[in-house]
Amino acid sequence: MKINPKHTLRTIAGETIIVNQGSSHTDMTRIISLNASARMLWEALAGKEFTTEDAATLLVQTYGIAEEQALTDATHWVERLKKCEGIVEA
Fold first, then answer.
1. Which residues lie below 8 Å from residue 43, measured CB to CB, with a gap of 6+?
2. CA 7, CA 19: separation in Å to the nearest integer?
3. 67-74 long-range contacts, Cβ below 8 Å, gap at least 24?
4. Any bridge partners for residue 19, and if so which?
5. What is the pLDDT of residues 26-64, one digit of tens each?
6. How far is the first Cα of the chain from the last one, in angstroms, to the nearest whole number?
7. What is the pTM assigned to this prediction?
8. Among candidates 72, 11, 78, which has minimal Cα distance to 87?
9. Percent of the chain, pLDDT > 90?
10. HSE-up of 30 (CA within 13 Å, CB side)?
């Protein structure tokens, strides 16, 4: 899978949010905010093909957490992105 390049990160009032570039029909009632680890994954994987396992490996390398926990967290991150239409390309 790959993060859709039309979506970028912006920091507004100290919060990292996902912005759909070039869309005049953005629903401002749906703001997607990322915590520090979600932002790290986004920045490390944007522009690349990746798997959930790739994201889990980054979590282990960055935070030193157990592989099982990292895979659970990475799966949750990917599932949340997939729920937001158009952010992740298959």
1. 9
2. 5
3. 73/37, 74/41
4. 8
5. 555 567 899 999 999 999 999 999 999 999 999 999 999
6. 4
7. 0.88
8. 78
9. 77
10. 8
